Amino acid sequence: MSAEIAEQEIAHEQEFVDRVYRQLEQSARNAEALAKEGHGRGRLGHEGGLVERDAMVFQAAKRLATLNAAHEGLVFGRLDLGDAADGPRYIGRIGLRDDNRDSMLVDWRAPAAAVFYQATAADPQGVVRRRVLRCAADKVVAVEDDLLDAERGEDLVVVGEGALMAQLSRARDRSMHSIVATIQAEQDKAIRAPGRGVVSISGGPGTGKTVVALHRAAYLLYSNRRRYESGGVLIVGPSGVFMRYIERVLPSLGETAVALRSLGEVVDGVKGTRHDDPAVADVKGAARMAELMRRTARQAVPGAPRDFRVFYRDDTIVLTGRDLSALRRQLLSGGKRNRQLPRVFSALVDAMWRQVRGERGRDRGREEFVDTMMGNVDFVEFARAWWPALDATDVLGWLRDPDLLARVGEGVVSQEDIALLSKSWSGAGDRARDYSVEDVALLDELRYQLGDVPESHEHDRDHEPDPLAHLVDEGRPEVTTVSDREYATGPRTSVRTEDDGYAHVLVDEAQDLTPMQWRMVGRRGRAASWTIVGDPAQSSWPVPREASRAREEALGDKPRHEFHLSTNYRNSKEIYDFAAAYAARVGLDADLPNAVRSTGLDPEERRVDDLEQGVRAAVVGLAGAVEGTVGIVVPAARRASVQGWLDTWDELGEDRLGGADARIAVLTGLDTKGLEFDGIVVVEPQEIESESATGRATLYVVLTRATQQMVTVSAG
Ligand SMILES: Nc1ncnc2c1ncn2[C@@H]1O[C@H](COP(=O)(O)OP(=O)(O)OP(=O)(O)O)[C@@H](O)[C@H]1O
């Protein structure tokens, strides 16, 4: 194939791409005009004007956002079909029509685009030639063809060596990119799977599970926009760094109505960023913690009055500790703690009225007794303190008291568990509200145990007017509506459990969710369809059976659809062979995909006398050898010291600045989950392996993160 012919083809495609961009601008102008008109109508003030305006402005703004997001690499595919009379079909990130309403560009998710991904030479499905256009901004820089039907395509020019290889060899930056142009047939099936029930996508490292799941989210939004945009789509991933890594994929596909949350951010209003030590994390994630939280949520409020005494007419009325415990149990048997707030006053007054024996008191009747108590400042204060509206963070705080922890933990968790939990919480001091990722699932458990504070229980007609009502109102959290969610760009502000549900829940790196995290995520997907992505061999949770039970409970009896991906698109063959040999050596039952790209560069295992100098040489070497990112992966115990070294290695310049998001960054094994780097330096792999009960799986994850080159460095 001569370069000249390739140039001609590129120039030809450029003409079409130019036309598409002109049309895009026209559409953007139309959307803007519509938005302006919408604002104008609002001002007219005629009936219904506001509603109409809101709808118009909203639609126009959304269309504008989509158009802006689509700007980069707008057109990426072309199909020449058997029936030449139809002309070529172009595929893009969004669909676009010309002024005559004729289709110029087919949205990649539309049924008419499916053959672009599914046609093969063995089964061309009417496609003669498939062409991928590679663009830089709005300029076509290369075209890559597959001739699928050699007979009918005799006259067609065929250019390029394959879009996929070109895409896989590109340098990595700190963001995942969309793969719309090169989705492979087995991936496409998982992306376009029907939106009902649970879609599980499994596969070994680098098989595209994450990127496929994200494209699936975009597909679902396209195929049933009303359901998924108003009900919301929640995407849960392992860490903040991971969420930043994937956050650009959906906007680049024109979708913004999605909540991306790391496991530490699933609960509105709290944020866990640090991890507990593995031993503590293992306890906090275990299923037995649910019972511990249930018991905690039923405890008397620490520091609240233990009894109450008042004189009424001829009687001394006393609510003893025992009375109050019985009342607490009685109220709790009627429903969740906060839900019972409207009943507290009557329950207390009833118990006290039973003690009114004197004639003067009885003669005046219960009503007067109630009125008197409502006006009694001491009583109202006592009742507020005895049964306040409780927040999960306050209740978790109770467990900082080792005695209380030991009391509620008895018979539920072991003595060792209690010691570990106590060390984690009672030592918190100033960090009392600095939650770990593992604490967040416990807070969620407590939220559901406590229940929401009723919105306006003062209107509750079945019960006495409640002097505590105003108290409750002060603390009433905001409630979000469906339209808030549609308009929302940032995190939701709701803290009510009833607003937690989504229409679709997508869990990435699902093999790592603890039982408590499954419970937390499961609550958000009771009525949802699900996409679950994972690879059991990469799991860092030590009790897989317990986690799968919790996962089954979260998913209920929803129908399951399984998809398996079998090609590793990330690692060079040399790197993946090394990792697979490690998995076999340490006895991991790994799902071994087929790595398709070879670089001729084997990983290196270096032994050095001076660890710092050895790591420095490896990092500087890789930073010069690869174009993209370099990850320095260290045992958790060495993280701070290696970061300190990196800070002093001035020859690396700006590339090491910016912490976890820099071109050259220090990460622990667990931090690397789901990420990838062009070059990886693994510091003391043996220590990473022995650092936790599931260290072998963690090291396997680490060994499967590099796209180009990998060096391990150990001292001695
Ligand atoms: N069809 C494709 N075309 C181009 N690149 C692809 C394709 N499929 C996957 N990739 C790339 O392969 C890399 C690995 O993908 P991804 O991170 O989604 O894999 P994964 O299965 O989630 O990996 P792991 O389980 O190891 O974290 C990414 O860079 C992704 O963009």
From TrEMBL:
Residues where ATP binds: 203-210
Matches recorded under InterPro entries: DNA_helicase_UvrD/REP (IPR000212), P-loop_NTPase (IPR027417), UvrD-like_ATP-bd (IPR014016)
Pfam families: AAA_19 (PF13245)
Protein name (database record): AAA family ATPase
Keywords: ATP-binding, Helicase, Hydrolase, Nucleotide-binding
Stretch list, region Disordered: 454-496
Domain of life: Bacteria
SUPFAM superfamilies found in the cross-reference section: P-loop containing nucleoside triphosphate hydrolases (SSF52540)
Domain UvrD-like helicase ATP-binding: 182-572
Biased composition (Basic and acidic residues): 454-487
Organism of provenance: Nocardioides jiangsuensis
